[in-house]
Structure formats: C-alpha cells, structure tokens
Amino acid sequence: MEQTFCQSCGMPLTDDNKGTNADGSRNEDYCMYCYKEGRFTQDFNMNQMIEFCAQFTDQMNEAAGWNLTPEQAKAQMREFFPHLKRWRQPQSSTVIEKAAALLAQCSAVTLASVNADGFPRPVPMAKGRTAGCNEVWIATGADSEKVADFRANPKAGLCYSYLGDSVALRGTVEIVTDDKIRNDMWQDWYIAHFPGGPTDPNYLLLHFVGTEATVWINGEFVREKL
C-alpha cells in the first residue's frame, strides 16, 4: 500500500493517527495532531507550521533514521509543504489581515520608548486589548520609567512575533488615565500588579497606534503605511 502523509504537517498517516471529521469518522487527509472533530487544531499558516514542526527534529530523525539539523529539516519542509493539500489552498487574506491575526496569536509585545539620552528602550510587555494589526493597549505603572519616557516623547516602536512570523511598527503612544477607559480595559489578572483594582492610582494604560509596518509573514515581506 502506498504511504500517505498528513496534508498539513507531512507526518506519515496510519489508521492509528488519523484525525477525525465532525461526525467522528476518520479523516483520510490529516493526522490527529492537526485535525480533530472536523477542524484544524492550530490556526497556523505554512511558515508557522514549519517552525512548529522543526521543534521535533530529533523525533523525526529517530523515526526516519535521519541526521538532520533543524535548519535542514526546515529546508526540506519548505520544499515539501507547498504540495500538501492544506497549503495548496489559495490564501485570500491581505497582509494586513494576516498581521492582525498574528497579533491575536501573541500574548506579549515589545514596546520601545525613546529615553532622555535619545536611545531606544525596548521592553517586553503583556498585551491588553488590540485592534487590527497596529493598535495595542498595555497596562503599566504610572511611576514606571517607560511612562516618563512617553511623557517627554510619544514616539514609539512596537513589535510582535510568533513561530517565525513578525511585525514591526512605528507610531506613537498616548498615556491614558481616564477612569472610564481604565475600567473598560481592566483585565482580572491586572490585580496582581494593581491591588487597588481599576481605580488604583498607579494603574494607567499606554495606547499605541502604529502608522508604519514592516511585515514578515509566511515568507512574504511587506512595508506598509497604515
């Protein structure tokens, strides 16, 4: 019998590892790790799937008797994956829509202010609410160094990445102290940092809006004015 492969990740398919359709029947195209109950288990593009699979290079080498490095494995997948059913489907989303989807996948961003000496000061921060690909609200302390930077200079950079894809933005930051907005944007986990809740005097929001984007997603490189 001819060997078949998962049409998402390239894993050899057997009766024991096939995914399932919505009615519980076995799916003949995808493995259980990629497809379950009629849906893909990961919201990946092809490049992200390659980066994800490359984490398991040692297991692939052991199963197949290979001796590939992760970079060699990724090079092979870049040749093989475009022929798989999932990745042959036309991708109708615009690059900005893809960037917005990437931001939704990320739990953290890196926000850069300009300090008093004129140097960028990048800091990884947990993201709060987002809109599109270029608007992010971030909770922080009113007494923080980054807030002092933005009071003096609102210019900012922000970037985010996930499994090899990335977006870098240039824009500005608004410091938000309005009580209604602070309450609307409050998330339960903020309480660990602001024990006074939404009215904690040290709790404020940095509202970043990007006006220029440099995007690298699924092998596509684009610079965009927003």
Largest sheet: 8 strands, antiparallel
Q: End-to-end span in angstroms?
A: 53 Å
Strands, total number: 12
**Proportion of beta-strand residues:** 25-35%
CATH architecture heading of the largest domain: Roll
Summed up, what is this model?
The chain is α+β, with helices and mostly antiparallel strands. Helix content is 26%, strand content 34%.
Helices, strands, pairings?
Elements: E1 18-20, E2 26-31, E3 35-36, E4 39-40, H1 46-54, H2 57-64, H3 70-80, H4 85-88, H5 95-105, E5 108-114, E6 120-126, E7 130-131, E8 135-141, H6 145-152, E9 155-162, E10 165-176, H7 179-185, E11 203-217, E12 220-225
Antiparallel strand pairs: 1-2, 3-4, 5-6, 5-9, 7-8, 8-11, 9-10, 10-11, 11-12
Structure characterization notes:
By secondary structure, this protein is α+β, with helices and mostly antiparallel strands. It folds into two domains: 18-89, no CATH class; 97-225, Electron Transport, Fmn-binding Protein, Chain A (Pnp Oxidase, Chain A, Roll). Helix content is 26%, strand content 34%. It is built from seven helices and twelve strands. Strands 5, 6, 7, 8, 9, 10, 11 and 12 form an eight-stranded antiparallel β-sheet that branches. The protein has a two-stranded antiparallel sheet with strand order 1-2. Strand 1 (18-20) and strand 2 form a beta hairpin.
Keywords:
single chain, 226 residues, alpha+beta, Pnp Oxidase, Chain A, 8-stranded antiparallel sheet, elongated
